[in-house]
Write a structure and sequence with these properties.
single chain; 181 residues; mainly beta; Elongation Factor Tu (Ef-tu), domain 3; SH3 type barrels; 2 domains; six-stranded antiparallel beta barrel; six-stranded mixed β-sheet; 15 strands; 6% helix; elongated
């Protein structure tokens, strides 16, 4: 299984007594007239947003009213967001939960990847992971080079064969055109 990043990252909470929150997805455009919104979320994380579950949109709690599977993913509806106009107001917001699922082999939380040093297949320093960019085909690691412009590398086995969280580094296969435009 190729390594995939998950749409979950740590959010800072405003109080030390509040539980830590983890972003698992982002709301897309409204669908229909009854408050449903598309949601960009990994299928494994949908268990976190079942009807009756409380999630957080910009730090504010919202109870999931309904979840439906559609051809290209999932749609969510929330209590109190009952029409298209109300759904439009929360479009684009991140969906956060207080508990995250157990990761499988080859899966990483974005917050664990950010800050890792990046080396090429020969062990030469390339830069540092500064962000994880989520995409429909695959996610990408944004790398700030030590000497040069930032670039993105698709987070797939062929280009990122090794992630070593304990050593604090990621190895990339620097194929022609990946680092230099």
């Amino acid at each position: 299984m190729p390594p995939e990043t998950k749409r979950a990252s740590t959010l800072a909470s405003s109080s030390s007594t509040e539980p830590e929150r983890f972003v698992i997805g982002r709301l897309g455009r409204p669908h229909g007239l009854d408050g449903f919104l598309g949601v960009y979320v990994d299928e494994e994380d949908v268990v976190s947003v079942q009807p009756g579950t409380t999630v957080f949109l910009e730090g504010r709690p919202h109870v999931v009213r309904a979840v439906r599977r559609v051809d290209r993913g999932f749609q969510l509806a929330f209590k109190g967001i009952d029409d298209r106009e109300a759904a439009e107001e929360v479009r684009g917001l991140e969906v956060a939960v207080t508990e995250r699922r157990q990761l499988g082999d080859g899966e990483y939380w974005p917050a664990d990847l950010i800050g890792l040093s990046v080396v090429d297949q020969d062990g030469r320093a390339v830069g540092v992971v500064t962000d994880v960019v989520f995409g429909p085909g695959q996610d990408r690691l944004r790398v700030e080079q030590t000497d040069g412009p930032a670039f993105e590398v698709p987070f797939v086995d062929a280009l990122v064969p090794m992630v070593d969280l304990q050593a604090g580094r990621v190895e990339i296969n620097s194929i022609p055109g990946l680092i230099e435009p």
